[in-house]
Structures are given as structure tokens and as C-alpha cells.
Design a protein that fits this description.
Helix content: 10-25%
Largest sheet: 6 strands, mixed
Distance between the termini: 110 Å
Strand order of the largest sheet: 7-11-12-10-9-8
Radius of gyration: 35 Å
Number of helices: 2
Length: 184
């Protein structure tokens, strides 16, 4: 005998042995019987846990999506009753009597370092977009809808926080805050 090759066919559970003797070859086949055993079924635990994880991931994705959309669609409405912030989770109406409108101004936050947001306390912080509650470098609490730090509008309030906004027309927003008479 010169050589023996053993070939195992896993798909058909068949072993084949070939014996080579010069010009002759003899093939011997042997059938193997395989038994398969399935895993014992788990209780409901894994499905419940995976369901909870999936639900949490969907909620997080929805929240991030809403914030990302608000970074492009938020708006600020000035009326005789006050300032309405329309956007993501922190939209609200600030009554006219709580705004210190005569001190509203356009600022460059790169130059006015005391007004720079330094810590997000409860809000959204995406590259190029901050909204929600932040602490400013000067220690004050601030409500932000900020996309442009070069031309931001600062609106002091009598509520213990400052508002920082990024309207497309900062000068127009400041003028509207100062010129709109209080309503009844």
C-alpha cells in the first residue's frame, strides 16, 4: 500500500477511505448515523429583555431624530404676550413681564467668554447645535437654542436664567423684543 486518504463529508455524514496501490484504487465507504439534539427552549426572559432593549433604542433614536430636526426647524415668536420658543423638548412660552427685553442684544460668544455655555445640565448637545439647559462660564443657568456662536441673541429674564438663541435675523429679533408693546 502506498497511501491512505481519509475524506470526511460533513454534509452527508459519510466517510470515504481510498487505498491506492499502484494503478489500482479501492474505495471503502462507511455510513455514519448522526443524531441531532435541539436546545431546550428558554423561558420568556430573553424575549422580554430584547424587547425592552429594542424599545429603548427606538426611543433614543426618536429623541435624537427630533433634536436633529429641531436644529433646522426651531423658531422664535415674539408677540405682545411674550417670547415663544418652538423646537424640540425645551420649547416654551416666556411671558413678556418675565423678559428683560431692553437688555436683549446680539453677541459674539467667542468674544464674550462669560456667556459661553460650558456644561450641559439637561439638554441636547450635537455638533453645531445646543438646546436645553446649560451652565454658562459665568455660572448662570441658561436656556439655549444655539447654532451660531458668532451671532447669538442674549435675552435676560427675571426667572433666574438667561436665554441664548440663534435666529437667522438676530438684529430683527432684538428689535422685535424691544419694540413689541406688552399685551393685556
Amino acid at each position: 500500500m502506498e497511501a491512505a486518504d481519509t475524506i470526511v463529508c460533513y454534509a452527508c455524514t459519510q466517510a470515504s477511505t481510498s487505498v491506492h496501490m499502484g494503478a489500482f484504487s479501492i474505495s471503502l465507504e462507511e455510513r455514519r448515523v448522526a443524531q441531532s439534539f435541539a436546545i431546550a427552549p428558554a423561558g420568556a426572559g430573553p424575549q422580554v429583555i430584547l424587547g425592552i432593549i429594542a424599545a429603548v433604542l427606538l426611543l433614543v433614536a426618536a429623541a435624537v431624530g427630533r433634536s436633529a430636526l429641531a436644529s433646522r426647524t426651531a423658531r422664535f415668536e415674539v408677540s405682545s404676550s411674550g417670547l415663544v420658543l418652538v423646537g424640540d423638548w425645551w420649547g416654551r412660552e416666556i411671558p413678556r413681564e418675565d423678559l428683560v427685553a431692553d437688555r436683549a442684544r446680539v453677541v459674539d460668544l467667542r468674544e464674550e467668554r462669560d456667556l459661553q455655555p460650558v456644561a450641559r445640565t439637561f439638554g441636547t448637545g450635537l455638533p453645531g447645535y445646543g438646546s436645553g439647559w446649560f451652565r454658562l462660564r459665568n455660572g448662570e443657568k441658561a436656556l439655549l437654542y444655539l447654532t451660531n456662536q458668532r451671532r447669538a441673541v442674549v435675552v435676560p429674564t427675571r426667572l433666574g436664567y438667561t436665554i441664548l438663541l440663534s435666529p437667522r435675523d438676530p438684529v430683527g429679533l432684538v428689535a422685535a423684543l424691544r419694540d413689541t408693546p406688552p399685551g393685556a
